[in-house]
Amino acid sequence: MDETDRLRERVRQLIQSMPVPQREFAAAIGLDQTKLSKALNGARRFSPHELVRVAEYSGVTVNWLLNGSDDAKTVTAVPAPAAGTASDPDDLAHSEPRRRILETAWRLIAERGYHRVRIADIAQACGTSTAAIHYHFPTKTEVLDEALRRNVKLAFDRQVAELHAVPGAHDRLLKLVELQLPTEGLLRAEWSVWLQVWNEVALDPRLRSLYTDSYDRWYQTILMTIRTGQEQGVFRLADPEAATARLTALIDGLGIQVLTGRPGSTVGAMRAHLHDFIDRSIVQGA
């Protein structure tokens, strides 16, 4: 059984564990039932986007889907236990209400802001009671904690899905930049949550260890990609750590400028600045 066969078998296992039939599973991940059947039968491959949706809906990681383990060695750094989420295919039915609550809370926080979202708002959007929300998340602070972990998981899933078949470090680094741009939709929502987390961390020291573990996964992903580029002979820089610190800081600063609407700050301009930095400081090693 090769890697693709094992992937299909894991997705079948997830579908069998869910409390809904296969057609509803397909609809939930935004995939036509016929396409899902073809992917399960080997007539087509799951796209990176489809893998992310399967993992998100099922409560597992893309790393688990592809490699059978959340912490398997892959092309991106694995989240620290405190910042990650563990896959549990045998407990999917029980975890579905929690997943739906967290997804709704995360979306509301991204759209309205952390301090403008009440537990009652989350309950109303979920069509449930505040007691049901408090059963899973006793306080709103715990919702923010889980929103941060969800951001980490979404980024991890997306990177593993997109990068696992990209062998070249240069192409991989450019893809990592593309996956971090605050384009409209999911990525902009992730940035919105990160901005609010940064603010809360500055005010609440209790959140700092979780934030540090979360941010470190992204930092280590960039660092390991740059070091791989050195090994492949495509990056000529002398100090990978310094380059990683500058590149991640540049991404953060430019992303904030885009989200806050600074005149002249656009996703396109952010991409151009980052590509220029990579070319001059990492590829050429200036």
Automatic annotation (TrEMBL):
SMART domains in alphabetical order: HTH_XRE
Organism: Amycolatopsis dendrobii
Gene Ontology MF: a single term: DNA-binding transcription factor activity
Listed name of the protein: TetR family transcriptional regulator C-terminal domain-containing protein
Keyword Transferase set for record: no
Top-level taxon of origin: Bacteria
Signal peptide segment: none
Keywords: DNA-binding, Repressor, Transcription, Transcription regulation
Domain annotation HTH tetR-type: ranges: 95-155
